[in-house]
Write a structure and sequence with these properties.
The chain is α+β, with helices and mostly antiparallel strands. It is built from 17 helices and 33 strands. The chain has six domains: 64 residues, Orthogonal Bundle (Arc Repressor Mutant, subunit A); 62 residues, Nucleic acid-binding proteins (OB fold (Dihydrolipoamide Acetyltransferase, E2P)), CATH 2.40.50.140; 69 residues, Beta Barrel (OB fold (Dihydrolipoamide Acetyltransferase, E2P)), CATH 2.40.50; 321 residues, no CATH class; 53 residues, no CATH class; 83 residues, OB fold (Dihydrolipoamide Acetyltransferase, E2P), CATH 2.40.50.
């Protein structure tokens, strides 16, 4: 390094070591030392070098001091390439940790770390100084026997080392078994982690072992304790006249359930009649709280699970099937206890009046989304078979359109990404992968459930009692500015001066609709937003442009809905006194955190299973050619999405007809010699060259 730079380092270091020095920001240092503006960048380089060497430290507020770095806490996330990141517990961006600075940290560990560099415009860098606690105690992977000992190769690529299994700790596992390992040591600089086999999941080639491995790796429980199952059987008795006492009797009302063909846990029914020009909409939800008493074994198990998990080959329910598919499921022709939200809505979609009541109902007809769509399309056979409900279904479509249009006017954002439908054979092999399209029927149920959720949330907000809300906060200003700068390249604009409004995002998506860049702009807009979560504070729902929102309509499969049903029932029965209010105020914050966390885990499991089955499906189509659309462009290649929703990578190393460079501002790869370009939204023909079930990736090449 040149002598001038070293001299400058010494001058700055001596200045910071002076007894009269107080911690300062870079601009204050520059002002005191009379360093001109054009040399500020050089000063930053000198300070970064001193921070990296540990001679000075940089605080969260951007002030430089002498001595030991401030020790911060966070959670370590490993990367399969050896380095990692720490997510600080006090917020702020992730901190990059180079491989040589890991200090033995393991995926998911709570660690103490110091900042070693804060380069301008780039991610901060740091070093782990101490592991505080381990959060991962079990790892799922493939067992390999090596004589009198063995190794487990973890499924999760974030676990960077194989796990050593000493002799006698393999529990009868053989090469090719998928196993769950209990860690007994997390290893060190020159030592592998060590463990003992706690459970054999099955052979790697056995049907269902692949999905079960993902489920177990994420700590999702698949079996119910005996005590919980016994309790479910005891409480799941048919509805008696005594159960109906004190309830509003709606058994004479015409109502239907509308769900997917294979759904078994039917927790919502809908009814609709016209009263003059107004609509009387009834959303009737299974009264699960009647059967799952607070603090019971069933309740504790449901709280721990937080949500049902819907995977390609199975449902892992929050409540045992005897309840979720039995007495709590609103099966046609059977008396059921419900909590109903009955709303009077004007022709313009305005809520005029509502009532929330404990009811007894009897569903007339079980309908499917496809069956309802056929009625709305006027298919003769569907009209003939469902004559008694055709008028109600048509009026439901009428009201659904009114509610959707009203939500749109206030700025509600509709991200219409196609979901993936995976058809498996009896051995769990994927036979078909296709987009799962929303139709008019799915939109009817969506619109009615949103209306009920908003109505319940608003009433209980004004009642000023402890409650669980579903909130979606306003996006981070910096992320919105980055989105704004990016979309300017495509000729789009959003106002981000103060707080961005939902209407701005809605307009952006409307303008991009049908353009080559539509998918990318939708994805980037979604990524720029915060995640929805459960909260005891009603801060509104940005994505729905709603002032009040909760989850009321799915107590069979979501714990927050079950929890607020209890509050509503206490209120309806006049039991919401001081004691109950302070009880709910005490337990709801923990419930909000637990339910938000479990929801993330379930979503990740669902996503990973879809990726796994897509890779497995494409493995049977290697060498085949498809038309696709470029869905992403990066410096390492282009991502191409096929009509069946499978996305794969064309690696830049496999684009051998030219040397391609990434033009960041235009989001394209350009050939240096041929001038050929690959842009977002461009149609391309690709050949499948590889598919990896372990990494859950698909590889293409351009044809």
């Amino acid at each position: 390094m040149d002598q001038t730079f070293e001299k400058r380092k010494k001058v700055i270091f001596d200045f910071i070591c002076d007894d009269l020095y107080v911690p300062m920001k870079i601009k204050e240092i520059a002002a005191v030392l009379q360093i001109p503006g054009e040399q500020r960048g050089e000063l930053k380089e000198v300070l970064d070098a001193l921070v990296e060497e540990g001679k000075i430290t940089l605080s969260k507020r951007g002030k430089y001091s002498k001595g030991h770095a401030e020790r911060l806490r966070g959670v370590f996330q490993a990367n399969m390439r050896g380095f990692g990141f720490v997510t600080p517990e006090d917020g702020g961006g992730d901190v990059f940790i180079a491989e040589e600075n890991l200090s033995g940290a393991f995926q998911g560990d709570e660690v103490e770390f110091v900042i070693t560099a804060a380069p301008h415009g780039r991610r901060r860098e740091g070093k782990v100084v101490r592991v505080i606690s381990h959060s991962v105690t079990r790892v799922v992977g493939l067992y390999e026997s090596c004589g009198n000992y063995g190794f487990v190769r973890p499924d999760n690529q974030r676990y960077l080392h194989d796990i050593y299994i000493p002799a006698g700790k393999e529990m009868g596992a053989m090469t090719g078994h998928k196993v769950a390992v209990e860690l007994t040591s997390y290893g060190g600089e020159h030592m592998k982690p060590e463990g003992k086999v706690a459970e054999i999941i099955g052979h790697v080639n056995d049907p269902g072992t692949d999905i079960l491995s993902i489920v177990m790796d994420m700590g999702i429980k698949t079996e119910f304790p005996e005590k919980v199952l016994e309790q479910a059987v005891r409480v799941g008795k048919p509805v008696s006249e005594a159960d109906c006492a004190g309830r509003k009797d709606l058994r004479a009302w015409q109502m239907v359930t509308i769900d997917g063909e294979d759904a078994k846990d039917l927790d919502d029914a809908v009814s609709l009649v016209k009263e003059g020009e107004n609509y009387r909409l009834g959303v009737h939800i299974a009264d699960v709280a009647n059967y799952v008493q607070e603090r019971s074994a069933l309740d504790r198990e449901a709280f721990e699970r937080g949500t049902s998990v819907y995977l390609a080959d199975r449902v892992i329910p929050m409540l045992p099937h005897v309840l979720s598919n039995g007495i709590c499921s609103l099966n046609a022709g059977e008396d059921r206890l419900a909590l109903s939200c009955i709303m009077t809505i004007s022709p313009s979609g305005e809520l005029l009046d509502h009532e929330i009541a404990e009811t007894v109902i009897c569903v007339d007809k079980r309908m499917s989304y496809n069956g309802v769509a056929k009625i709305l399309e006027g298919e003769e056979e569907a009209l003939r078979e469902n004559g008694e409900v055709v008028l109600m279904i048509r009026q439901m479509k009428e009201l659904s359109d009114i509610l959707r249009e009203r939500r749109g006017r206030r700025g509600s954002i509709d991200f219409d990404f196609p979901e993936t439908k995976i058809v498996l054979d009896e051995d769990g092999k994927p036979l078909e992968i296709r987009p799962y399209e929303r139709n008019a029927a799915t939109k009817i149920i969506e619109d009615f459930m949103l209306m009920a959720n908003e109505t319940v949330a608003e009433e209980y907000f004004w009642r000023d009692v402890p409650f669980l809300y579903r909130t979606h906060d306003t996006p981070d200003g910096e992320k919105m500015r980055q989105l704004s700068a990016f979309i300017n390249n495509f000729g789009y604009h959003i106002h981000v001066r103060n707080e961005v409004k939902p209407k701005e995002i809605q307009k952006l998506l409307g303008k991009a609709d049908g353009t080559p860049e539509e998918a990318l702009i939708s994805r980037l807009a979604l990524r720029s937003m915060k995640q929805a979560r459960y909260s005891t504070e009603n801060t509104g729902h940005f994505g729905l442009a709603a002032k009040y929102y909760t989850h009321f309509t799915s107590p069979i499969r979501r714990y927050p809905d079950l929890q607020i049903h209890r509050i509503i029932k206490d209120n309806l029965r006049g039991r919401l006194g001081k004691g109950r209010i302070s009880h709910y105020a005490e337990i709801l914050p923990q419930a909000a955190v637990q339910c938000s966390t479990k929801e993330r885990t379930a979503e990740e499991a669902e996503r990973e299973v879809v990726k796994l089955k897509k890779a497995e499906y494409m493995r049977g189509h290697i060498g085949e050619e498809y038309e696709g659309v470029i869905s992403g462009v990066t410096r390492w290649g282009i991502y191409v999405e096929l009509p069946n929703t499978v996305e794969g990578l064309v690696h830049v190393a496999d684009m051998r007809d030219d040397h391609y460079e990434f033009i960041e501002q235009d989001y394209e790869l350009a050939g240096v010699h041929t001038g050929r370009t690959y842009k977002l939204g461009q149609s391309v023909k690709v050949r499948v060259t590889g598919a990896d079930k372990v990494q859950r990736t698909v590889d293409f090449e351009i044809v």
